[in-house]
Amino acid sequence: MASIAVVSGLLAGLALHRALANDPAIASANLSAIAQEAAAAGSATTDWRVRAPAPTSGSAWQVTSTLDHQLAVTFKVRGTELRKFEQALHEHSRATVELIADPDRELTAQVRYDEFESTLRRNAVDEQSTLDADHREFAVSMRDGEPLVSQRDAKSGASNLLKTGDLADQVARLSREALAGGWLATLLANGPVVSQTAIEVPLATGTPLLDEALHGATLQRFVLTPIALREESGVECLVLLATATAEQPPLPKSRPPEVTTTFELSGEIAVRREDGRIVAMTLAGPLRCAGSTDSGSSQVEIAGTGTLTWTYRASPLPR
What we know:
By secondary structure, the protein is an alpha+beta fold. It has 6 helices and 13 strands.
């Protein structure tokens, strides 16, 4: 039988993949039809570049993120199933991000979570976590290109620097979009941005943007295809089809089992033309894992399939 250590090792590997699950067809069912409609509009030679102004103090955004992920894994020896493992993860957050200039005119991102929940279901057993009301405020500054995250205690007013971890990483991701002036702004401002013409996104740009969904997996390719201009909340936005592939390689041999997980995501991204900031993003698709481990007397084959969906919204707040 597969040992507890084998299962724990697999969970350690899978824990690196923070994702979500719904039906992956949500993001891609109508992509072909949308692209054909845009092409028929006769806009193939239009340059749809965005602007990329520097971030300014006083700007604020409400950011909502929802991640869902489902995965079913089987363990087999010589074709005989030993056991099956199922996992479902749901994460949802809503936060306000505001840029404030310190006395030295350096920008700091103030982050406050209005909602934060995470539910992990393993074999029908739920594990839940939330942020209590007294520990939802954070400040993020940049030092040598890296974010420093501090958490403020609402009761005492004291601030403590957060070490690297899931919460610190999530807060940093929220803030870096604001502090950087938009993940895709520079790429889409330099152009050309032509309807129906694919744009290969540099991995250095795409990796931090998609890290909340992939969380540790290595981005292999990220392609954007402009398809339309659309109004979102009274502001003109550039709409792009998005496809991404990524892979999480096996963990070191000292931490079995050796499992590789692959991701194939597609969907749509809307970017405001006036400042290059992402206002809406939905990506979804299948994930697969495969590998093996030595249980002592037998080789245990591991295979899993699942789905992942990530929905992101960012709405500017009045100054």
